[in-house]
Amino acid sequence: MRTYPDLVREGEDSKAELVRVEREQARATVTLADPGRLNALSTVLMVQLVAALQELAADPVIRTVILTGEDPAFSAGGDLAMIAEGSRAIRDHAQEADTSDAWRWIRHQFGGVVRTIAGSEKLFVAAINGPAAGVGLAFALACDVLIASDRAVLVPAFGRLGLVPEVGTSWLLTRRLGYQGAIATYVRGRHIDAESALALGLVQEVHPHEQLARAAAAWAEDAERLPRHAFAMTKSVLREAADAPWHQALSIEELAEANCFSTATLSEAADAIRQSASGDSPAASAPR
User: Fold this and answer.
1) Which residues touch 36 (CB under 8 Å, ≥6 apart)?
2) How many whole angstroms from its chain centre is CA 222?
3) Average pLDDT over the chain, rounded to whole?
4) What's the CA gap between 198 and 183, in Å, rounded?
5) Which tens digit of pLDDT belongs to each residue from 68-99?
6) Which fold has domain 4-225?
7) In whole angstroms, what is the distance from residue 150 CA to residue 64 CA?
8) Is the pTM value of this prediction over 0.70?
9) In the chain, what are the domain boundaries?
């Protein structure tokens, strides 16, 4: 394994375009675009992905981001050749790379993706178009909404590689499946098809493959209709509340709600709903 600076430099110097970003007004679609390798998370793809997501997260125009893969896969997960090389290098005292290089890669590249998704004020929609394995699965699970094609397969391959559930997966699986459900998923390592993922609550919707992009756009459109501040604050509140005791979640909500009262949007929306209810204005004037 090369040192962490060498890995980042390799990604920055590459001329290959393995992450495609398409913008449409307030929306961006980010596509992992190395289909010949099933969008495996190579050094080049990762460096480009982190940069793209950080740029979008900082862009005041963008309100929603759709994350997907170029068919036939969402992502095969970590680059297995890189994983094997890194494991051998760390155990070889003659090699310059050591555990800290692996730690920095995991933290700043893999972790950089999920921290950006979770910390951003944007709605992130994972449109899982095919197999999503390992860290690729973790990236999808980090998103705010997950929808799946009927060709999607979730592949929790951590155990087979001798790894722990990583990049936030342990947090999410225990909350969705409970401790025993998460353990069972890890030990068995079985592929989870789209309908099973829906039944387990790991995705919100399943769509025919050719309708997946439209379904993702519909989620983005719903979020874009909401007042910008309201969604941004609600995402922060719900992310914090997932780990907070009830009384702490209540306090977080109270602080955020009071801030909402300082916006013109609230009074205008309240007036519109009130007038609509009394028949003074068309129902279409109410916020959607």
Assistant:
1) none
2) 18
3) 89
4) 19
5) 999 999 999 988 888 787 777 777 777 777 78
6) 2-enoyl-CoA Hydratase; Chain A, domain 1 (3.90.226)
7) 23
8) yes
9) 4-225, 228-285
